[in-house]
Specification:
Helices cover 52% and strands 13% of the residues. It is built from 13 helices and 8 strands. It has helices spanning 2-9, 13-21, 25-32, 38-50, 67-87, 109-126, 141-152, 169-177, 201-217, 229-241, 259-267, 283-292, 294-307; strands at 54-59, 93-97, 131-133, 159-163, 182-186, 221-225, 250-254, 272-278. The longest helix has 21 residues, at 67-87.
C-alpha cells in the first residue's frame, strides 16, 4: 500500500526538499492549490461561484512552532474574511481551519488555539458565513471537539470534521448528529496506527456508510466529503430515505479532483462545495492528496516523467 509510505514522506524534511526542487512540482501542485495569496485565489472563487458551486477555503500551513506563527495564521484568515466581505460572498464561501495552525501543538496550545480561532469565527459570522474545524491526527481530536463545543455556544453554525477510519467516530457521530451541528464526514488522510483506525479500504468504506447513515438520520447538517461515485450514490439514497431535501445536506470535494462531477451535482440541485486551498506552505496538504487516491499519485508521476 503506497498511502502509508506517502504519508510518512509528508513528514520527511528530505522528501520535502527533493519534491519541492523538482521542476514539474509547481505545475502539479497548482492542480490542487491554485494560488499563494488571497489575490491569487479571488478569480477562482468568482469563477466557481458563478457556476453555482460553493466553496470552503483553507489557508495551507501546518508546521507552526511559535505563538507568533500561530498569530500570523489567524491574521491570514482574517484577511481572507475581509476580502470575502468585500466581494459579498459570505453566503457562498465558508472557511476550513486546522487548529494546529492556530498553535494547538504548542505549550498551552488548547487555549492558544481557541484564543486565535475565535476572532476568525466572529469575523466569519459578521459577513454571513462560518468556519469548519478540520480533523487532524487522532491525538488532537479531544481538543478539537472541546473547542468546537465552546465556539458553538456563541456561534452554533460552527462545523467540524469526523474521519471514518477511526474506531471512535461512530460514537462521535451519534453525539454530533443529535446536536444540530454541521458535520463533514471524510475517510481520513493521516497515518494512524491499527490500534485506533481501520487500515483496509473496504473496512473504511463500510465504516463511512455506517457513520453517514447516523448523520443522515440525525438532526444535524451532514457534509459528505468524498469523491467516490459509489459513496455519493449511497449518500443520495440515505438522504432520500431520511426524508432530507436537497438543501438539508451537501457534497464536498477537493479542488482539482473530479471537476465535472462538481458541476453535475450542482446542476441536479445539490449543494456542492469545493474545498479550495491556497498558500505557500503546501507540502503536507499536497502529499496527503497524493496518498488519498492512487490516481493522484499516477498523475504526479506521469508529469514527472513527461517533464523530466
Amino acid at each position: 500500500m503506497l498511502g502509508p509510505v506517502i504519508l510518512a514522506a509528508s513528514r520527511s524534511d528530505r522528501m520535502r526538499r527533493l519534491i519541492s526542487a523538482a521542476p514539474v512540482t509547481k505545475q502539479v501542485v497548482d492542480r490542487f492549490i491554485p494560488g499563494e495569496t488571497v489575490s491569487d485565489i479571488v478569480p477562482i472563487i468568482e469563477e466557481l461561484t458563478a457556476k453555482g458551486l460553493e466553496l470552503t477555503m483553507d489557508v495551507v500551513g501546518e508546521d507552526i512552532t511559535t505563538p507568533e506563527q500561530a498569530a500570523a495564521a489567524r491574521d491570514a484568515y482574517l484577511g481572507l474574511v475581509e476580502r470575502l466581505g468585500e466581494l459579498e460572498l459570505g453566503e457562498k464561501v465558508e472557511m476550513s481551519v486546522k487548529l494546529s495552525m492556530f498553535g494547538q501543538a504548542l505549550d498551552g496550545g488548547h487555549e492558544l488555539a481557541l484564543t486565535n480561532v475565535r476572532p476568525v469565527v466572529e469575523a466569519a459570522a459578521a459577513i454571513g458565513t462560518t468556519v469548519t474545524l478540520d480533523a487532524e491526527d487522532h491525538t488532537t481530536l479531544d481538543s478539537m471537539f472541546a473547542i468546537h463545543e465552546e465556539l458553538r455556544k456563541d456561534f452554533p453554525q460552527t462545523g467540524c470534521v469526523i474521519q471514518a477510519y477511526l474506531f471512535r467516530t461512530e460514537a462521535d457521530a451519534r453525539r454530533l448528529a443529535a446536536s444540530g451541528s454541521r458535520v463533514r464526514l471524510v475517510k481520513g488522510a493521516y497515518k494512524e496506527p491499527a490500534e485506533v483506525a481501520y487500515q483496509q479500504k473496504h473496512e473504511i468504506d463500510k465504516a463511512y456508510v455506517r457513520i453517514l447513515r447516523i448523520l443522515m438520520d440525525g438532526e444535524g447538517y451532514p457534509m459528505v466529503g468524498s469523491h467516490d461515485p459509489r459513496l455519493i450514490t449511497i449518500a443520495q439514497e440515505l438522504a432520500h430515505r431520511a426524508g432530507r431535501k436537497l438543501d438539508e445536506y451537501e457534497f464536498q470535494m477537493l479542488y482539482g479532483i473530479r471537476g465535472e462531477e462538481h458541476l453535475r451535482l450542482a446542476a441536479e440541485g445539490h449543494r456542492m462545495r469545493v474545498y479550495t486551498a491556497y498558500g505557500t506552505d503546501w507540502y503536507g496538504y499536497f502529499m496527503r492528496r497524493l496518498a488519498e487516491k492512487p490516481a493522484n499519485l499516477r498523475f504526479f508521476m506521469r508529469s514527472m516523467v513527461s517533464k523530466g
